[in-house]
Amino acid sequence: MSDKQLSDHCQNPAVYLDRRREELHKVVNQLTKTCLSGECFEHLAPQPIPLRDDTIKIIKQARKILFPGYFTQTRIDPINLKYYLGQELSELHEMLGNQIILAIRHDCLRYHDSCVNCEERGLDAASDFVKQLPGLRGILATDVRAAIEGDPAAKSVDQVIFSYPGLFAISIYRMAHQLHHLDVPLLPRMMTEYAHNLTGIDINPGAHIDESFFIDHGTGIVVGETTRIGKRVRIYQGVTLGALSLPRDAGESLRNTKRHPTIEDEVIIYAGATILGGDTIIGARSVIGGNVWLTSSVPADTKVLQKPQQPVYSGE
Fold it and tell me: How far apart are CA 217 and CA 238, in angstroms?
């Protein structure tokens, strides 16, 4: 190859690179137009929104307090317990306060709300949340005991706390529900969706779940926003506590109505069952069998079972 041919050959990549840059420039212009058109979705604002990574850090920090000694490398004993809790609680309060402030400020600016003293309200909400932690520890203890009592495979309390996806999802739900009750925007759903992503258990933070709640196995469970669950309820994998078919404008017209069922005390719901509708009530101590589909209420002390299908066997 001559020097001229070599020079021409070496210039070709530069020509291709220039073409690629022109193409990228066109794409950037197109993307910018979509962002400014008002037809797509973006967050163009001087204030940042809450961060998912920081929300996950808050969950992990809270679990270190709710279950001292389980999720930390720090050695804890009765002598240093008070110091440990004080340090961890201070860090949680600061982290949570910062993210709540971002969430409230985001809503104010996004929806042009009147000023609500974002920083003061955020710090107050963080303080109100940490005040609930002793009570949360108490109710989570009932959830752990429910797992031990309801699952013969549970070998110890440590096993349940360390490894049961149901307890993991319930723990995060109970934190998120407290924030939901405090009218904190964004964060509660971000928290429960983190649990949903890891476990396949989807519990809306608006649901009301009483003590001693046990989820066995867990994958595929859905608990809708307006669901109410009583004491000592046990549910298995694949259970849906959902809403009936909704019209196209349901997002606005049904936003503040009860759309999901009520499950009274000591009910057992087996795998694959689907219970739908805001008027549907499953009476106390009832048992709902696997794969049952319900859109109407069930009286207390009732067993609802799917009629067994006849299996078909064939030889070669």
Answer: 9
Segment 94-150, tens digit of pLDDT: 999 999 999 988 877 666 666 668 888 999 999 999 999 999 999 999 999 999 999
What pLDDT digit, counting tens, does each position of 174-208 carry? 999 999 999 999 999 999 999 999 999 999 999 99
Look up tokens 């066997």; give the residue.
Answer: 313
Q: Are 129 and 136 in contact (CB under 8 A)?
A: no
Provide CB contacts within 8 A for 139, sequence distance 6+.
Answer: 174, 211
102's tokens: 């971002």
Spatial contact of 286 and 304, defined as CB atoms under 8 Å apart: yes
CA dihedral 149→276→292→233, nearest 10 degrees, is 10
CB within 8 A of 39, min separation 6: which ones? none
79: Cα separation from own chain's centroid: 35
Phi, psi of 243 (to 5 degrees): -105, 155
Interatomic CA distance for residues 286 and 268, integer angstroms: 7
Task: Write out the two tokens for 188.
Answer: 């509660």
Question: What span, in angstroms and rounded, lies between the C-alpha atoms of 252 and 126?
Answer: 30
Residues in the chain, how many?
316
Residue at 58: amino acid letter? I
Is 215 in contact with 171 (CB distance < 8 Å)?
no
What is the C-alpha to C-alpha distance for residues 64 and 75, in angstroms, rounded to an integer? 12
Which structural domains are found in the chain, ordered by start?
48-201 (1.10.3130.10), 220-247+255-309 (2.160.10.10)
CA separation for the pair 47, 104 (Å, rounded): 11
Q: What's the rounded Cα separation, in Å, for the pair 265 and 285?
A: 6
